[in-house]
Amino acid sequence: MTMKLTELHVEGYRSLVNVTLPLRNLAVLIGPNGSGKTALLEVFLLLRHGADKQLADRLEALGG
Asked: Which residues contact 8 (CB under 8 A, 6 or more apart)?
C-alpha cells in the first residue's frame, strides 16, 4: 500500500514558526531570502531520513 502526504505542518523549525502546507502533485517554492524555502526542503529530507532510520545522523549534519 502506498501512502501519500496531503498536508505538512511545521512548528518551530528554523524560520518556520507555524506553517501548514497543502501538498499537491506540483509545488513551487517562491519567496524572498530568509523566508524558509530551504528550511522547508530540509523538513522533507528529515522526513525521508526518519523513514530510513537515519534521522539522528541527518539532524547532526544540519546542525542539531
From this structure: 19, 20, 21, 23, 43
* pTM score above 0.90: no
pLDDT tens by residue, the chain, 64 residues? 788 889 999 999 999 999 999 999 998 999 999 999 999 999 988 888 776 667 677 778 877 6
Give the Å distances, CA to CA, from 54 to 7, 11, 17, 28, 58: 23, 21, 25, 27, 6
At which residue does the C-alpha cell 522526513 appear?
47
Contacts of 23 (CB under 8 A, 6+ apart): 5, 6, 7, 8
Angle at 50 between CA 45 and CA 2, to 5 degrees: 90
